[in-house]
Amino acid sequence: MLYFPLFALPPFIHLVRKETCLSWGKSLLLAFLPFLIMWSMATPQLLRTYHHLGEAAYSTQSGEHALFWTYQCLNVPLGCGNRDPQRMDQTARLLQHRLSNLTPEQRQNPIVVNRVKHGLAMELVRNIPIPQLISAVLGAATKLLLQNSFYEVMTRFGETEAILYPRLSQASILDMPSRLLEFIQDASQNGWMRIWLLFTIFLLVSRAIQVSGLLLGIATPPLQARLLFIVSSSFNFVFVSLGIGNPRYRAPFEPALVILTVAGWSLLWHRYRYGKLLAA
Q1: How far apart are CA 170 and CA 148, in angstroms?
Q2: What gap in Å lies between CA 211 and CA 231, rounded to an integer?
Q3: ∠214-147-128 over CA atoms, to 5°?
Q4: Three-state DSSP state, 141
Q5: Which residues have C-beta within 8 Å of that of residue 129, sequence separation ≥ 6?
Q6: What is the pLDDT of residues 183-205, one digit of tens each?
Q7: What is the pLDDT of residues 133-172, one digit of tens each?
Q8: DSSP labels for 210-227?
Q9: Which of 23, 102, 236, 267 could form a disulfide with 216 if both were Cys (CB 3.0 to 4.6 A apart)?
C-alpha cells in the first residue's frame, strides 16, 4: 500500500476540486486527509518493527516477493503462471552466498535480510533484456485479466497442469499460433474446457463492456474525474503483481472492474437509447 498514494493522490486531488469547486490548495489538503489516516493506521507497525528490530519498516516480506516472484516471473516468456524450478534454485544459492557475508546478528534481523533480498532482486531484474521484460509484463497482464474464475476450480482438480500450462505458459510469441491451435484441439475434447470456454466468453464480453465504460466515461464530463481516480487507484495492485499472471492477484482491483462494467453498460444503453453521451 506504500505505492497507493503515488498513483491515487493526483487524480483524487482533481476529483475533489471538480466535485467541491474549492481552490487547488484546499483540494490538496482535503484529498490528502484519507491518505494521512491510512498512514496513521499503519504507524503501530512501524513502531513495532523499530522496537523489536531497531529499524522502522512496514513489511519484511517485500524482498521475498521481489526475488522469488517478481524476478522469477519476469524471466518467463509471457509472464509466469509457473516459475522455473531451476532458476529458483539458482536464485536461492545466490541469496545464500549474499547472506553468508552478513554477521550472525544481521542474519537474524528480518529487515536486514529483506533489504538483501530486495537489493539482489533489483540487481537481477536490471540484467533481464528489455524485450523479455516487455513480453513478460504484457503477457502476464493479459493472463491476469483474461483468466476466468472457473480456472481456479480447474486448478484444484489438476486440469490446468494437463492442458493450459504445457500449451501456453512457456510459449514464446513466435510459437504462440501453433501452441494456440494445439490448445484449441485439446480443449474441444475436454469437458472441463467446454465449461471454461463459456466462462471465458462471458469474461471477454464483460471486458469489452469495461473498456467501453472507461472510454465513454472519460469522454463524459460528469464521470471523467471519478473514473480516472478509480483506474489510477488500481495501478498500485498492478505494480505489485508485475509479471505475475495469476488470477488471484486480480482480486484487489475487481471492485474497479465491477464499477467499469456498470458504467459501461449504463453508458452504452444511454447512447443506444438516446443516441448521445450523458450531458455535462
Answers
A1: 20
A2: 11
A3: 90
A4: helix
A5: none
A6: 677 666 777 777 888 888 888 99
A7: 998 888 888 888 887 777 777 777 766 554 554 445 444 5
A8: HHHHHHHHHTSHHHHHHH
A9: 267
